[in-house]
Amino acid sequence: MTLTTVTSVAVFDGTDLLDGAWDVSFDESAIIGVTPAGTNPPAGRIVDGAGATLLPGLIDAHVHFSAHHQLRALARSGVTTALDMGTWPPLFVAALRTAGAGADLRSCGAPLAGPGGPHADIPGFPADSLVTTAEEARRCVARRAAEGADYIKLIVERPGAGGPDLGTATAAVEAAHAVGLRTVAHASHTAAVKLAVRAGADVLTHVPLDTDIDHDLVRTLTSGGHVVVPTLTMMRGTANNLGDPALSFDHARNTVAALHQAGATIVAGTDANDAPGVPAKVLHGSSLHDELTLLVEAGLSPLEALQSATSVAASTFALHDRGRIRPGLRADLLLVTGNPVTDIAATRHVQSVWTDGEAVDTAKRSCTSSGGPPAEPGGRD
Length: 381
Ligand SMILES: [Zn+2]
Hints:
With 381 residues, the chain is of the alpha/beta class. The chain has two domains: 89 residues, Urease, subunit C, domain 1; 260 residues, Alpha-Beta Barrel (TIM Barrel), CATH 3.20.20. Strands 1, 2, 3, 4, 5, 14, 15 and 16 form an eight-stranded mixed sheet that branches. The chain has a five-stranded parallel sheet with strand order 9-10-11-12-13. A three-stranded parallel sheet has the order 6-7-8. α3 packs parallel to α4 and α6 packs across α8. It starts with a strand and ends in a 22-residue tail after the last strand. 51% of the residues are buried. About 3% of the residues have low confidence. It binds zinc ion. Zinc ion binds next to loops.
């Protein structure tokens, strides 16, 4: 065990900026102590935190993987937990889970989709993920659960665009709930959001580029307790790259602003991926800092944006051992220069990162060594 103490540091504990300066000690077992600076003689390896802020390690609630080094890239940027929203085959996901270096992974495995939508055309998309009936949806959810999925991801398209129909989507959600799993629905058009909500999806990811979602839908999402992971980084990249005049990033930002004003739960996620053919390439790790900036531009306070990537993300996905700085929790920690509660851009100024109490080498290497995943891993949307 390596005891480390960060001394005289400002602390954002996942919920609030604590008053004054603090000494925070931890090892590989847990965060041990959070005490006013100078109360106790600091012990173990000392890290001077003066002028810096200590945060819980960040959580990116929408990531895809094609290589092991992406876990390390996330950790270097302070993202200590990655919620994978579509990666296969299962052997590759299992290897990522036990990689032992970089961000800690949760995964849905391969998402469920309809055979007529764009996802069915992704090279290597697993045929057993294409569902057209309630019975097929139930069988697919059972397979994902048996593979160890932490939640179920469902691709919902607007009616007529080849996604699962309402009955199929509802059966998937109910089957997931029956085995204690939450459902995350990809919904990037307003009509798809409506279908996903009617199907009972717990979490919706992406926000429409085709129109602002209307007040009734904002109310339904908020009062129904649905969580939204907007992936503004991906929506901005998509709007820029597709060049379709019918799609605008303004709609995505306006929708997040309306959801925030209505009190909806918003969780930070980027859709980081490097899959060929995706509308926008989103870098693992650094993109979460872009997402935080975009959330603030959409009306969240810096404090709310930080909560969306720490305690709120942890609560949404029942990660009760992280997302806050509190004795007994995992020592997933990020030390940054300055104060991101007053200037969100400060999260980019990473001094140190610890995953489970272990220091991450934050120096970016010139070579991007891959951990050698099995053949043809994939992940998208
Ligand atoms: Zn995605």
